[in-house]
Amino acid sequence: MTRLRGTPSVLALMALLAGCTSPDADDPGPDAGPTTVAESVLEPCPEQPDEPTAGGDAVPALRFDCLGGGTLDLTRAPGVPTVVNLWGSWCPPCREELPLMQDLADAAGARVQVLGVISRDGEPQAESFAEDAAITFPSAFDGDGELMSELGLNALPYTFFLAADGTLAHTELGPIDSVAELQTLVAEHLGVQL
Fold first, then answer.
1. Which of 110, 102, 118 is nearest to 176 (CA)?
2. CB neighbourhood size of 90 (10 A)
3. What are phi and psi of 179, to 5 degrees?
4. For the chain, N or C: smaller number of CB within 10 Å?
5. 98 phi/psi in degrees, rounded to 5
6. How much is the pLDDT for 38?
7. Model pTM?
8. d(Cα 86, Cα 100) in Å, to the nearest integer?
9. pLDDT in tens, 81-111
10. For the CA atoms of the chain, what is the radius of gyration?
11. What is the distance in angstroms between the CA of the first residue and the CA of the last residue of the chain?
12. Which of 86, 95, 126, 114 has its CA nearest to residue 186?
């Protein structure tokens, strides 16, 4: 009998631990498809220079619409050092990390831009979470998880650091635990002291 009483707790723990694994891409759920959001709480993606990403290590050449307006084109250089965070409202570690990304965006001003890519999620769910968590930095929408697939990812969060010319300077798989850790990564990999 004791084993049977413990089983629901073990199952609940397993479900919690699996919370940051991507939902099934073939069956994202009835509300996961793109919808039209009247007015986003997220800022529009910034204009990008008309320069292709420099040679060397680069992220997959994809393009996404941003929920607040504009486009994130990963084939073009961002023009400023950039932190790109892949997140989803379904991912518990993302829910803890996103406010740190917002703090970084607020502290960095124009020296470093912070962009999100909402991955394998629905627009209403992402918007609702962003509003609840007071997230406003620009985020592109990748409802089908195309970027995750290109990167070979099944779990989030995932953050990459791009030099101004679009060269991939660093990738961070898994959650970042503090703004201080983010600032250290930005200084170390993008050369910007915040």
1. 102
2. 23
3. -65, -35
4. N
5. -55, -40
6. 60
7. 0.81
8. 13
9. 999 999 999 999 999 999 999 999 999 999 9
10. 17
11. 57
12. 114
**Ranges of each domain in the chain:** 35-190
Looking at residue 80, its amino acid is V
Question: C-alpha angle with apex 67: 54 to 158, nearest 5 degrees?
Answer: 55
Per DSSP, the residues of 102-127 read HHHHHHHTTSSEEEEEEES--HHHHH
CATH superfamily of 35-190: Glutaredoxin (3.40.30.10)
Which token pair is 51?
Answer: 């320069």
Read off the pLDDT of residues 60-85 as tens digits, 9 standing for 90 and up: 999 999 999 999 999 999 999 999 99
Contact 185, 170 (CB under 8 A): yes
CA 52, 57, 59: angle at the middle one, nearest 5?
65
DSSP helix/strand/coil, 173: strand
Q: Which two tokens stand for residue 91?
A: 């991912």
Whether residue 122 contacts residue 35, with contact meaning beta carbons closer than 8 Å, is answered with: yes
Please give the full DSSP string across 112-170, using - where no structure is assigned.
SEEEEEEES--HHHHHHHHHHTT--S-EEEETT-HHHHHHT-SB--EEEEE-TTS-EEE
Amino acid identity, residue 184?
Answer: T
In the numeric block, the tokens 């991955």 are attached to: 119
